[in-house]
């Protein structure tokens, strides 16, 4: 089958074997999204070699239970060992022996077919388009913030970033009724991020230190922020967040990158800041939110490419003006 | 009056003016403790110049209400503006305009007299010795952890550090009934830290990376830790904590130092770690705990010096075998 693989070099291959795994379902991929984590993996993050991709919608082609064949599904990307305490508690996301679709020890979704345990697959309602269904995985990650940190109408929230994940976080944050400021580099992307609510501020970090950026933000703001979500994936994001957050406030770290971050941790101690790492979320609330029609993700699709055009799709996804790039497979 | 002051150079002076402040109480210092923060200030942390010292017991010498004169007191070290939202909520610890005894814009306790607002002073019960009363401030800081993070009998806790503050954190943690491992460099100090409960492990970080240290700890431990308290003040403390903590676990940062810390923040995201900065605590629970006799702090006093011997006291406090050094003033 065709697949977009990375083995130190990114390339489209035509002869990848079907990724059949014993006891699992084989899923024919309909469409898949390129995430910033995919771009980081190609730069060396996570040391993954194999077929990339973990945001997808597909149709079950083979399954131990034949009645499942033909169902349109999305899939939780973490597949656990089913034996450890995490798996037995029903949450494979932190299983120490987990494989992760397109990220860790498991070929991913930029291919004609992928394999996942049946328990990872969730059938999606017919009102959810294929295009919207690809957003279930990153939307679950955005919604996960609300499971970890209390955000409500009285919260003063800053979001750093206007890219792929930040766009979804902005939509989710706006739903809470909080006072929201989205900070990014691109006016057009910020306008898109705040169309569901909130204000925005263009800050070009290229020529400024995190402290200078913070001064610019705070010169136009009445108060520091109760919650700052760092979703820019930039090395300056966390130091900027630390300069913007209120004493006793919370920083949510959403972005993974493979660089070391230098931090003045005494600020964390003196101001009693809480830093919360946040990764994957539960799919069901994301499906419900997307199916409700309350948030519009179609506007986030910058372009669609075929699997054969995978290399061009990655180039486009890395452009600063791009938001979500989809690979349309079937 | 005599005072131990730092103005880029540490020295005992004999001619410091009495630190009278309008509307405040003048307190005659009986005894004061040297904290790691004092040692850091002398290295340049916090940019403070003036009389050092913030752990003390004393007797009220002058007060707007004369009936207070003669009372034996300890004192909350943060003095707020009384106008901001923090102060109006009754918590000056994060007032943006606060002064802090011996740390920020307010002369401290290594002197014959100090000044604090009457509202900062708390009379201590007669059963609390002067020696134990000096520990109220750092004990409040240790107890504050339990207000921020849930620790109970089912918690698996690691404490990094065996110094001044870590000793108190160990006593407090042992009171919760948690499974406790104290990690430090000094066998004798670790024995002292675990006399109230818990196990200990000697790790000399001088010749090992945080990853190597973590491997040594985990080779003797069944599990990673739900909570890791970093109270070593070492630059390797936080990276070590990050290697020891369970997914979805919590790191409590107790130590301030003035260096930058390099961290692999993607570990925080992928493992969804929470990092909680923790500084000053409330005095009342600390007074109650010390007065209860359930914890013994007398054993933590390495030596006592007079104010005239202040320089020798600081040298002794900086020795790795020392725990608490007291300056006996009156």
Question: What would you note in describing this structure?
Answer:
With 330 residues, chain A is of the alpha/beta class. Chain A has 2 domains: 3-135 and 297-328, Quinone Oxidoreductase, Chain A, domain 1; 141-277, 3-Layer(aba) Sandwich (Rossmann fold). Chain A contains 11 helices and 19 strands. Chain A has helices at residues 36-42, 85-88, 130-133, 136-148, 164-175, 187-193, 210-219, 237-244, 265-270, 283-292, 310-317, and strands spanning 3-6, 10-13, 25-34, 50-51, 55-62, 72-75, 78-79, 99-100, 113-116, 121-123, 156-160, 179-184, 199-202, 225-230, 245-253, 261-263, 274-277, 301-306, 324-328. In chain A, the strands form 4 sheets. In chain A, strands 3, 5, 6, 9, 10, 18 and 19 form a 7-stranded mixed beta sheet that branches. In chain A, strands 13-12-11-14-15-17 form a 6-stranded parallel beta sheet, with helices on both faces. In chain A, strands 2-1-4 form a 3-stranded antiparallel beta sheet, with no helix packed on it. The interface between A and B is medium-sized, with 34 and 34 residues. Strand 16 (261-263) of chain A pairs antiparallel with strand 16 of chain B, so a sheet runs across the interface.
């Amino acid at each position: 089958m065709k697949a977009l693989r990375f083995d130190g070099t990114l390339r489209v291959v035509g002869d990848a074997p079907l990724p059949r795994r014993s006891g699992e379902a084989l899923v024919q991929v309909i469409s898949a999204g390129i995430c910033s984590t995919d771009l980081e993996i190609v730069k060396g993050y996570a040391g993954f070699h194999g077929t990339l991709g973990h945001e997808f919608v597909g149709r079950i082609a083979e399954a131990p239970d034949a009645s499942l064949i033909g169902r349109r599904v999305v899939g939780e990307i973490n597949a656990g060992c089913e034996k450890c305490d995490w798996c037995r508690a029903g949450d494979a996301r932190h299983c120490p022996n987990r494989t992760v679709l397109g990220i860790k020890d498991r070929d991913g979704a930029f291919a004609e077919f992928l394999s996942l345990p049946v328990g990872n697959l969730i059938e999606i309602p017919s009102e959810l388009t294929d295009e919207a269904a690809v957003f279930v995985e990153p939307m679950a990650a955005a919604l996960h913030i609300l499971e970890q940190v209390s955000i409500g109408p009285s919260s003063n929230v800053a979001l750093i970033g206007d890219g792929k994940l930040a766009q979804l976080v902005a939509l989710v944050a706006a739903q809470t009724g909080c006072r929201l400021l989205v900070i990014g580099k691109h006016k057009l992307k910020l306008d898109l991020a705040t169309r569901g609510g909130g204000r925005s501020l263009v800050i070009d970090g290229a020529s400024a230190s995190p402290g200078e950026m913070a001064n610019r933000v705070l010169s136009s703001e009445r108060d520091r922020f109760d919650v700052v979500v760092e979703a820019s994936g930039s090395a300056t994001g966390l130091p900027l967040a630390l300069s913007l957050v209120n004493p006793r406030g919370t920083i949510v770290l959403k972005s993974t990158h493979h660089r070391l971050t230098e931090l003045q941790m005494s600020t964390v101690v003196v101001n009693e800041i809480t830093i919360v790492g946040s990764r994957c979320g539960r799919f069901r609330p994301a499906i419900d939110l997307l199916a409700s029609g309350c948030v519009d993700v179609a506007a986030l699709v910058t372009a669609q490419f075929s699997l054969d055009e995978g290399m061009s799709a990655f180039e486009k996804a890395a452009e600063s003006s791009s938001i979500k790039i989809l690979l349309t497979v079937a």
